[in-house]
C-alpha cells in the first residue's frame, strides 16, 4: 500500500522523524529554499500537515495545499494557526494539550524562583570569582507572597498547585470566574497586578490577550513586582516591558517566550534584571516524546477514520 504524503513544517527529534518516515512520504518543508514553489509542486494530494506552536499554518500555506484536511500541531498554543481559515475550509486541527502542562508549570515556577532569588545572576557571580567581594546582595523571598496568574487554564492551574506548596496567596484573572477554585478572582488584569508580587502569564494568545500586558499593568505590578511569561510573547507589549526593566519600574522579569523568536530584541541580553529562556517550557525529553507520539496518534487516527485524540474544537478568538 502506498504511503500517505505528509508535509512536515519543522524538524522533530530524529526518533520522531524516523517513525514518521516509516509511515508517511514525508516532505520536509523546512529544507525548501523556496517554500511556495515546494508547496505548489508537492502540495496537491497532501491531506495532512504536521507543524508546531511557533510555525503554525497560515492561510497562504493552507491554500497552497488544495486537498488539506488536517493540521496536526506539536504544541498546545494555536495562535500561529489561522483557525478561522481552517474552519472555513473544513480543515481539522489537532494540538498537544495535557501532555506538556506539568513541564510548563515547572518552568514557570522555576523561573519565578530564579527571578526572585536571582539564581542565574548569583551563579555568574560565583563563576566570575567575585564571592570574595563580599556577596552579591540580598534577593526577594518567594514563599508566603502573593501570586497572580493570568489565564487559569491547564497550565495556570498547575502553577497554582505548585504555588500552594510554597504557601503563596493565589489570585487570577481569566475571561470568567471559575467556581471550582478558591483563589481570588479579578475581572481586570491591572487590578490583579496591583494586588500581587509576582504575575505569571499562562494565557493563550488571542484577540483578548494580545498586547494585554502594557504600561497600565506594569505600573500596577510596581517597583517590587516581577513578571513571568511561559505563554506567548505577543501577550506582552515588549518595547514597554524593556523600558520598565531598563528604568527599574518593575523589579524583574523571567521570560521563556518573546516577540519574533528566535531573533529576539537584543536589549534583553543587556539587562541584569531579566532571566531569558529559549522557549524551553515543554522541552524535556519526556514531554517532547509524548508530544511527538500524540501528533502521530492524531495523524494515524485521521487516516484510519477513527476519532481524533486531541482536536481543537473551541471557539476561535
Ligand atoms: C513548543 C509551545 O515549544 O505548546 C506550545 O504552544 O509553544 C511549545 O510547547 C512548541 O510548539 C514546539 O516547538
Output the keywords.
seven-stranded parallel sheet; five-stranded parallel sheet; Rossmann fold; alpha/beta; 2 domains; globular; 11 helices; 317 residues; binds 2-keto-D-gluconic acid
Folded structure, characterized:
The chain is of the alpha/beta class and 317 residues long. 34% of the residues lie in helices and 16% in strands. Strands 8-7-6-9-10-11-12 form a 7-stranded parallel beta sheet. A 5-stranded parallel beta sheet has the order 2-1-3-4-5. The mean pLDDT is 97.
The radius of gyration is 21 Å
Q: Mean pLDDT, rounded to whole units?
A: 97
Largest sheet: 7 strands, parallel
What's the structural domain tally? 2
Poorly predicted parts: none
Between the first and last Cα atoms, what is the distance in angstroms?
41 Å
Which architecture of the largest domain would the CATH scheme give at its second level?
3-Layer(aba) Sandwich
Q: List bound small molecules.
A: 2-keto-D-gluconic acid
The proportion of strand residues reads 15-25%
The first-level CATH class name of the largest domain: Alpha Beta
Amino acid at each position: 500500500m502506498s504511503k500517505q504524503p505528509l508535509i512536515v513544517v519543522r524538524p522533530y527529534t530524529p526518533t520522531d522523524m524516523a517513525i514518521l518516515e516509516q509511515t508517511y512520504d514525508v516532505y520536509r518543508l523546512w529544507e525548501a529554499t523556496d517554500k511556495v514553489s515546494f508547496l505548489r509542486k508537492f502540495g496537491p494530494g497532501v491531506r495532512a500537515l504536521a507543524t508546531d506552536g511557533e510555525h503554525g499554518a497560515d492561510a497562504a500555506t493552507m491554500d497552497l495545499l488544495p486537498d488539506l484536511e488536517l493540521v496536526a500541531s506539536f504544541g498546545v498554543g494555536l495562535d500561529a494557526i489561522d483557525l478561522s481559515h481552517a474552519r472555513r475550509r473544513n480543515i481539522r486541527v489537532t494540538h498537544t494539550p495535557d501532555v506538556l502542562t506539568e513541564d510548563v508549570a515547572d518552568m514557570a515556577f522555576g523561573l519565578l524562583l530564579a527571578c526572585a532569588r536571582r539564581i542565574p545572576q548569583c551563579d555568574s557571580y560565583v563563576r566570575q570569582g567575585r564571592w570574595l567581594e563580599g556577596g552579591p546582595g540580598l534577593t526577594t523571598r518567594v514563599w508566603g507572597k502573593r501570586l497572580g496568574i493570568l489565564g487559569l487554564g491547564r497550565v495556570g492551574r498547575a502553577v497554582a498547585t505548585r504555588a500552594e506548596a510554597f504557601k503563596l496567596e493565589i489570585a487570577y484573572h481569566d475571561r470568567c470566574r471559575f467556581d471550582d477554585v478558591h483563589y481570588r478572582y479579578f475581572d481586570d488584569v491591572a487590578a490583579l497586578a496591583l494586588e500581587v508580587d509576582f504575575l505569571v502569564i499562562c494565557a493563550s494568545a488571542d484577540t483578548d490577550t494580545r498586547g494585554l500586558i502594557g504600561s497600565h499593568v506594569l505600573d500596577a505590578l510596581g517597583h517590587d513586582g516581577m513578571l513571568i511569561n511561559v505563554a506567548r510573547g505577543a501577550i506582552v507589549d515588549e518595547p514597554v516591558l524593556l523600558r520598565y526593566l531598563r528604568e527599574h519600574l518593575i523589579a524583574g522579569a523571567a521570560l521563556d517566550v518573546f516577540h519574533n523568536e528566535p531573533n529576539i530584541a537584543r536589549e534583553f541580553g543587556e539587562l541584569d534584571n531579566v532571566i531569558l529562556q529559549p522557549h524551553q517550557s515543554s522541552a524535556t525529553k519526556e514531554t517532547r516524546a509524548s508530544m511527538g507520539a500524540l501528533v502521530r496518534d492524531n495523524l494515524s487516527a485521521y487516516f484510519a477514520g477513527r476519532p481524533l485524540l486531541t482536536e481543537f474544537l473551541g471557539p476561535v478568538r
